[in-house]
Amino acid sequence: MRTIPFLHKTLCVLLALCLCCFPLAGCANNSVKQDQPLLRQIAAAVTASQNILSEVMESAGTLSGKTTVAYEESQQSTDFDAIQNYVETCRTASSALAASTEALTAQAQTIDSAAGAKSEVAQTLLAAQKEYFTDALSLFQNMQETLDFYVQQYEAMQPLLQSLSTQASDEQSYLVAVYQAAGEVRSALAALPTPAWLSELWPCYVSSLDMLIKYMESRSWGLAYADVLRLYSANQLISRMGLVAGQYEDTIFDLLSREYNHISFLLETNLMALGKEILASCKSASLAKESYLSQAPIVFSRYTLAKEIFPNLYPSMDSAVNLLLYTDKSVCNVLVTAEIAGFTQKYEQKLTLTSEMTYLMIKPPVLADMPDLSAAKDTQLTLRVENIDTGEILVQESQPLQLYSIYDYKNYSDEFGIIQNDNILAWVTPESEGVLQVRREAISWLEETLGSSYGILPGYQLAYGFRSGQEAYVTYYEVAAIQSAITRLGVRYNMGPYSFNASQRVLTPDAVLQSKSGICIETAVLMASVLQSAGMHAMIVFTPGHAQTAVETWSGSGEYFLIETTLLPFGATEAELNTLIQPLSAQDWANYLANAAEKAQQSGGMVYVVDCDLATVLDIQGLAY
Questions:
Q1: Distance between CA atoms of 537 and 233, rounded to whole angstroms?
Q2: Which residues contact 143 (CB under 8 A, 6 or more apart)?
Q3: Cβ atoms of residues 287 and 281 within 8 Å
Q4: What is the pLDDT of residues 182-230, one digit of tens each?
Q5: Which residues pair with 413 in a beta bridge?
Q6: First to last CA, the chain
Q7: Helix axes 26-34, 120-165, angle to 10 degrees
Q8: Could you give the CA distance from residue 553 to residue 408 in angstroms, rounded to a whole number?
Q9: Backbone φ, ψ for residue 383 (5° rounding)
Q10: In whole angstroms, what is the distance from residue 246 CA to residue 210 CA?
Q11: Which end is more exposed in the chain, N or C (fewer Cβ atoms within 10 Å of the end residue's Cβ)?
Q12: What sign does the CA torsion over 122, 124, 127, 131 have?
């Protein structure tokens, strides 16, 4: 991170020496007299610079307010007018700031050619004005980087915005165009140089475009193959993308406004004050007994802490602590620590704070030896910021935190607002030992039931004597084998309640096998995990009060079997097979989901389809896995 040393310690030491020994004798007075031309030159440069600083200070303050207003207006509008106007404001401010930087640099250069100082007073003031100009130019540079970054990211977004608003001959052409534009824009945004304070947050925002890209792909595929489930899932995915990206944008605009406000504050409170002190000292040819230069820096902090943790969803969180730090001047070395007692290791990071904002998204790593998380418990989330140089505790916060059990499931996120049931993907564990055991048992069942030549679980590969055009039969056999294996491993259906709109206890697949029972959501997740483990495309279908599994009949077929995983024990009779596996057509699926949605409206629930292939796109993987 680039530092902005407003007032180096060496300068403070030099000042202290001057305060102790000046004036000492007549020779010192003579030296000061000889330095009068230099002092007048310093005073002239600083005087000329004060108007420049004042203009930039006012511009930064205005930008802070306009940033907040532009974001609020953009949230209430269906077009981009507010943002476009804001971008033009940023361009105008950037151009004016460049001119101010050039003018301030010119004033600083008038002192570079000045004759050397002879008195200690002049030496101190010469060093002080150098710090004054150096730090003012650093602030200007910070502001320039922020302005230019916003304009650059807006320009980088244009191909996507244009493709979204372009009329196409048909929807497929439109989807392809947006898909390509979104991919190009994502790469361009990821490559942008960002202000230091945005280094952790910006990659999170850019990654949210993966959901838009996947949406275009899923919708295009769904339309081409009349894939009702993929279309249903795509509509939910774009809704999630809007919520997640919107939350990131809210934080980014808040930090943008704070950055401009902070720069305005530093220019007024620090540099304008320092400039006036330099001018007073040049006029009196002496130094103040109590100098601004000798004052210790103040550290400002702002933070938010999580109030609850669902352990199996913890890997999907961006952060448990969000921390903003900066100083009013100079540098300050700090140690930041954070910890969730009984759940995580201690997060530690040493930082050199400056007047430039530092924004941290902290997620302490979980303990290497995980404690028993089978039951919820109360714990503490602690945050501490210590000044390494002085030992002063700058932040000491310990907040009560509810640590839920590893099986507690929540279908929404406090980070982003309600984002529906995609969180269940944290419970899908295709490579866990229990799931692999089910696969082995399914193969054994096939061999014992149909003969040794059936002893494979091939996924989407022709087997069991079926030929091209009969692919769905292979998948049918595999589903029957998996359900039979789950039965042979002793699992039975537990008619416990499942609530879509509240926190729910959901056993992982391995825990279902160990407990030998599962409610509908647990048996559906177990089936989906085994299907995913075999390289097959599974979806979990939520209807009011119930959860089922769907599996694509063949890779890319766009057709799905509906699997009633609660049919336990399963004896593979013809009647049971007809109940377990229902081959629904596209129209059947549309009717099924429509009827479920109508029921949901009456009962207050909802219908949701979770595509298990989205685990990577959404970066959801459970802690238990």
A1: 13
A2: 56, 60, 97, 259, 260, 263
A3: yes
A4: 999 999 999 999 999 999 999 999 999 999 999 999 999 999 999 999 9
A5: 417
A6: 35
A7: 40
A8: 32
A9: -130, 135
A10: 14
A11: N
A12: negative
